Amino acid sequence: MNTALKHWKEAATLILAAGHRLGPDSLSLRTPLAASGCSPQVSSGGRSHLPHRSRFDYDILLLKRSGKSGFMPNAYVFPGGLLDSSDFSSDWLDIFESFTEFPSFGLRSVRQPAETRPPIFATDRLKLGSPVPGEVALRICALRETFEECGVLLAVSKMAEKSVLKGSENAFATQQHNLNHLDSSELSKWRDLVNQNPSNFIRMCRELELVPNIWALYEWSNWLTPVGRYGTKRFDTAFFICCLQDIPHTLEDEDEIVRFQWSTPAEVLQSFQARELWIPPPQFYELSRICCYPLLNDLHSFAFQRATEGCEKWMPVIVFEDEHSISLLPGDRRYPLDSSEEPEVDKSTDPQQKDPQDSSALHHMVMSDPYTTTIQITITPKYNHLLPVVLTPTHDSKSQL
């Protein structure tokens, strides 16, 4: 962990997509959206409508945080949590023994120049005393937290570990590489132990002869908590995405997480607009991007191919105008030049423009209340990422789907 950070705690989260069967009335709607105009391109409003939920052949896992939580109570979020010192432990070298000869334990190299990489990915962990590369530790954290919070264990049997580096482009994280030999009661016992002490995740992998499937997690984005938005807690979070062929068995932790649900991205956004659930801005933005691919195979192929491009550090800068909260994102004409750590309040109300020619550049979220959010974007996403589907606020959001 990077204990030198002043304002943020490092964290990792996992966008988990899992396939489901389409109903017979949906078979004619399985044309990929990419073929009908959802390829990344600059427009004043992105796509103007949300794909119908019947077009999706997969669900996304969301967990509802406890109302007693000290951070974003009652929010529906992706599984994830804080990095722990055990995620960087040298004990992992034994677990990953077959992969330590490969750079980053066999993870694909990112083409993004080192000087533009977000600090959470670029930090030299060896200089901080960890023999485990940051890209590996962040994925271990995301997998550990997913197991802790919902009981989904994404791991590879030692007997199958040699196959994980072969042909991963066309392979989902298939059935967690046949962990069916593990008794559910045994996994439940280990889950309790990992919840008690994160270092037990290492012990579990050693005793059950498992390797965390870090190779199934593709780098997706990096979000930082804005200043003063959610109390004093702030997080620098690496977002990963993973695609499963089928929905796995899920268990609530009955502590921080009070319920979970598998829903299509369209259903989640619909429920958000209908004020049936609340999702934080990063979840809203990422689900809006994911809506560009209603077919799991297309989403997986895109995520796999895009992951080696890298990503941009996004720390929203909040300004207030006409009773609206506006969350400025990098690339917006009003995004401040200095957004590192704690931008001055007066600077965010009168931001500096990077270039006079960028006067038309928009990249922000407008929130008139917690359930009414719109994305305004005219820029081309960096690192070959997706433009979000843009929702139009409506009092009858269900009529859109």
Automatic annotation (TrEMBL):
**Boundaries of every Nudix hydrolase domain copy:** 39-285
Q: Where is this region: Disordered?
A: 331-361
Q: Cite a single GO MF annotation.
A: metal ion binding
Any one of the GO CC terms: mitochondrion
Name any cofactors this protein relies on.
Answer: Mg(2+); Mn(2+)
Main function: Fatty acyl-coenzyme A (CoA) diphosphatase that hydrolyzes fatty acyl-CoA to yield acyl-4'-phosphopantetheine and adenosine 3',5'-bisphosphate. Mediates the hydrolysis of a wide range of CoA esters, including choloyl-CoA and branched-chain fatty-acyl-CoA esters and at low substrate concentrations medium and long-chain fatty-acyl-CoA esters are the primary substrates. Highest activity seen with medium-chain acyl-CoA esters and higher rates of activity seen with the unsaturated acyl-CoA esters compared with the saturated esters. Exhibits decapping activity towards dpCoA-capped RNAs in vitro.
Q: What is this protein called?
A: Acyl-coenzyme A diphosphatase NUDT19
